[in-house]
Design brief:
By secondary structure, this protein is α+β, with helices and mostly antiparallel strands. The chain has one domain (41-236). Helix content is 40%, strand content 11%. The chain has helices at 28-32, 42-76, 108-111, 136-143, 151-157, 170-173, 193-196, 205-218, 221-236, and strands at residues 2-4, 7-10, 83-89, 95-101, 161-163, 189-191. A two-stranded antiparallel ribbon has the order 1-2. A two-stranded antiparallel ribbon has the order 3-4. Helix 2 (42-76) packs antiparallel against helix 5 (151-157). The longest helix has 35 residues, at 42-76.
Length: 242
């Protein structure tokens, strides 16, 4: 049994490959129009933004040498750019450019349709624990969560927060129900309840969504701080890293 911040315990889930079924999609604008806006106090919003700016600047200053080492490692690992840039959905479904260190082969997105039958997560998500598209360097970066460091730039820009639900791709959001899309009622983050509760070992998409919605409903500065404190522990123990 796993215990996670603010929500009882989650049962262990067996990860099994799923048979590929063509997902039902709706226009992105139709899905995001169902997001219910949540009123937050100005003081709370400013406090969260302040924590994001100060926290990301501190982390960037601390990991600057490591940042350079990772860039060199990715560059030497094979052909392709150092950074992976992708369009993601943020607060209220607004699109933004999402950054991370490249951990896969250059044509990873083109290979994705051929690997759908290996998907190990139910619902509108795609994850394979032993994804054949991941490079050797990429595998190490993912285990240590170093591939996420460039998202600190997204935090400084205001696209993301240090804490919040992970930002989905537009094609994933097109498969969301009215209930599921409410996870976009808050700004997405680098870490969150999902990350400190098992990350990739949580294979049930509905459970993943419920963790995010619990965060949306119960958000507070104190909850953010609790998740921030638990994140290094999850990284050190590589809980559910893929």
């Amino acid at each position: 049994m796993r215990e996670y911040v603010g929500v009882g315990r989650a049962p262990e889930l067996r990860v099994t490959p799923l048979h590929w079924i063509a997902p039902r999609r709706r226009p992105l604008v139709a899905v995001t129009s169902e997001i219910r806006e949540i009123a937050r106090g100005r003081g709370a919003r400013w406090t969260k933004r302040g924590i994001d700016i100060i926290g990301s600047l501190i982390v960037l200053a601390l990991v600057a040498p490591l940042f350079v080492v990772v860039m060199l490692a990715v560059r030497l690992s094979g052909p392709g750019p150092v950074f992976f840039v992708q369009e993601r959905c943020g607060l209220s479904g607004r699109l933004f450019r999402f950054y991370k260190f490249r951990t896969m082969v250059v044509d990873a997105e083109a290979r994705k349709p051929a690997l759908w039958h290996l998907n190990e997560v139910t619902g509108a998500a795609f994850k394979i624990v032993r994804d054949p598209r991941i490079t050797r360097v990429g595998s190490l970066l993912r285990k240590l969560s170093l591939d996420e460091l460039p998202q600190l730039w997204n935090v400084l820009r205001g696209d993301m927060s240090l804490v919040g639900p992970r930002p989905p791709t537009p094609d994933e959001v097109e498969q969301y129900s009215r209930h599921q899309v409410q996870r976009l009622a808050v700004i997405p983050g680098i870490s969150g309840l999902w990350q400190v509760s098992g990350r990739s070992s949580i294979a049930d998409f509905d459970q993943w969504i419920e963790l995010d919605l619990h965060y949306v409903r119960t958000w507070s500065v104190w909850l953010d701080l609790a998740i921030i404190l638990r994140t290094p522990i999850a990284v050190i123990w590589m809980r559910g890293a893929a």
